[in-house]
Amino acid sequence: QSVLTQPPSASGTPGQRVTISCSGSSSNIGSNYVYWYQQLPGAAPKLLIYNNNQRPSGVPDRFSGSKSGTSASLAISGLRSEDEADYYCAAWDGSMSGYVFGTGTKVTVL
Amino acid sequence: EVLLVESGGGLVKPGGSLRLSCAASGFRFTTYSMNWVRQAPGKGLEWVSSISSSSDYIYYADSVKGRFTISRDSAKNSLFLQMNSLRAEDTAVYYCARSSAGELPSVVDYWGQGTLVTVSS
User: Fold this and answer.
1) pLDDT tens-digit profile of A93-102?
2) Using an 8 Å Cβ cutoff, are B116 and B8 in contact?
3) Under an 8 A CB cutoff, do A98 and B61 touch?
4) Which of A99, A100, A103 to mutate to probe the B interface, most B CBs <10 Å?
5) What is the pLDDT of residues A80-90, one digit of tens each?
């Protein structure tokens, strides 16, 4: 059962900027780091953003993350066809003593 | 290179048991927390359980508490998930995933390819 809320879908044409929101509460996003994962079709999730806005080595700077209060967002600029995937936000929830994931957003490149 | 390889998935009847294993390599296993995350067919990601590097701290999702047990064996560089009293709603791909530090919480940074568990009569 997902605790973090994301829009089910987002889309854009190549080169456009797409933003995905993630809404939580004071026990998760409001008091802990936010992470973002990309899951390509048929593949395992891959870490895209950690600690709200940090990119692991190898992740293009087209991907950026931000957090404000109990919400976070992922932005993809210069959209490319290979960005078509499902994207999930995640955070530790202190009340549940466990990780919570977002509902997931499917990004389509038109 | 960090490598996580799950095994032990398969078809099991409701009420049955299954033990998943995850062989870790490419990093110092004893210094990282580990996790299990699952994904039901066509659905999103669901955290299942986490264990700290020393096994001192263990956490479970409410949906599996009392039925699943996470453990690790440093000598074998392996993570395990003992699943009992399985239900149809436990059907999912189970991913083994590493956290970036020994303590929890820390970002889940590497994932295995997953093993499919199907609970059906």
Assistant:
1) 999 999 999 9
2) no
3) yes
4) A99
5) 999 999 999 99
